Amino acid sequence: MSNFRINFETGEQVIYSAKRAARPKDFLEKDTVDNLEYKKECPFCVGNEESTPPTIYKVGEPWIMRVVENKYPAVTMQEDQDIKGIHYVVVESNKHNCNIDKFNVEDLERLLKLYIKVSSDIYKNPDMQYVQIFKNYKREAGASLEHPHSQIIGVSFIPNNILKELDVSRDYYYGKESCIYCDEIEKELNINKRVVIENEHFVVLCPYASLYQYQTQILPKRHISSLFSLTEVEIKGLAHILKDLFERYRRNLGDIAYNMYFHCIEKEVKEYHLHIDICPRTNIHAGFEISTGAIINSVYPEDATEVLRG
Ligand SMILES: [Zn+2]
Ligand SMILES: [Zn+2]
Prior knowledge:
Elements: E1 4-6, E2 13-16, E3 55-59, E4 65-69, E5 85-91, H1 105-123, E6 130-137, E7 149-155, H2 160-176, H3 180-191, E8 195-198, E9 202-205, E10 216-220, H4 232-253, E11 258-263, E12 275-280, H5 287-292, E13 295-297, H6 301-309
Parallel strand pairs: 2-13
Antiparallel strand pairs: 1-2, 3-4, 4-5, 5-7, 6-7, 6-11, 8-9, 9-10, 10-12, 11-12
The protein binds zinc ion (2 copies).
One zinc ion binds next to helix 3.
């Protein structure tokens, strides 16, 4: 297996160094999130709604999920700023200890529909060029609060990582007249070395040049660039895949920290393909990675696939 790989979609360089690998059982740590349904000092818990900005969207009565503006926003719509933006927090559950890996399929479907509704409303603002949906789980992944939550940030520019993916996929498309991601899905399903799970509508891969240990990428089998193109059946299919995948992470690796993010654009194009990445934060990108931009990963994606298939 090649120990040096380049991510075709982003150009990122990855060195695999299996000798440094921690075996999966090294991660199997116990839950470190307090196992309480309610915590008095938590601003997202039921009864503490006054400690957050007002609810803008909610699901259920009085609520099982709600969306508020971030109390400490990274970006705002203030007129005098070069970059404008909208920063929301999605409180995913009314229970402090119910992270989305414990959700049932219906809850995951509700959450996905909430993401879609909020993103679509952000794009109605003509200044908004890009909407990022993401989740930081646990402190090592950047979360400052334990209560299950994700974030949605709309910004008045297209960030570099998206521009880079758009550039590469456009070049590929004009060379081959096909989508780089569609081709990758077909190839991966054929060789079947990095496919963790699939259903009728989605496939989960450990990407060929994964930057993070046990990183996975969820891709719709149908060519879609925008979250707004997902049909009702596909949303259900995605909820099933997320449930299965989160259970696999917990079963095989324990309660690990991770970032999950959606890469998609507002409107359909032939060359860009929606994907959702889950990046466990079990390895730290340190001096070498920061200085060179090349990443050292001690778990080959083929080995990660084996573990997550378990
Ligand atoms: Zn809470
Ligand atoms: Zn495609």
